[in-house]
Amino acid sequence: MDTNISDRIRLRFNLFDADGNGVLEEEDFIALADRIIQAVGAAETDPKADALRAAHAQYWQSLQLTNAADRIDLAAYAATVSAAGWFDRNGLPYAQSLADICDRDDDGQISLTEFQPVMEAAGFAPDKVRQLFASFDRDGNGSVDRDEWIAGIEEFYNPSVSDTVTAVLVDA
User: Fold this and answer.
1) pLDDT, tens digit (0-9, with 9 covering 90-100), for 31-44
2) What is the pTM of this model?
3) Which CATH number fits domain 3-159: 3.40.190.10, 3.90.1150.10, 1.10.238.10, 2.70.70.10?
4) Cys bridge to 157: 6, 31, 50, 87, which one at CB 3.0-4.6 A?
C-alpha cells in the first residue's frame, strides 16, 4: 500500500473514530451520524436523518461482520475498505446519504452553506472545507450536485485514483 493510500485510509479511520480511542466501535458511527444530523438542524424524524443513520449502521456492520469483532483497529479497517466491491456495497449508500442530508433545500445542489456544517461535523478542519468544496465542484458552477459529491467520495475510496479531492482530504 503506497503512502498516499495509507494516508487516505488513516484519515477516514480517524474521522470515524469519534471518541479518539484508536479503534472503531458502533458508538463511533452513531455519534458521527448524530453530529451531522445536529449540524444540519434535521429533526429526529427527518427521513434524511433516518437514511444517514441507516448508512452509518450499514458501514459499521460491514466492518463488524468482515472482522467478527466489536472493535476494529486501523489494519482491519484498511483491509476491509480496500476489498474489491466494498465501496459499491457499503461506501456508496454512505456517500448518497451524506449528499442527501447536505441538500437541505432539496434543489439537487449543495451550496457551500449546506456543505460546511456537514464537513465540519464529520471532522474536517474548517479552513480545509472551502478547498474540499472547490475540489468536489467539478464543473465550477459554485455548487455540488449529488453526482459530483458521490464521484468525489468514490475517488477518495478508490486506491488507484490520485486527484484533487484526495489531495485536499489527505491534508485535511
Assistant:
1) 999 999 999 999 98
2) 0.88
3) 1.10.238.10
4) 87
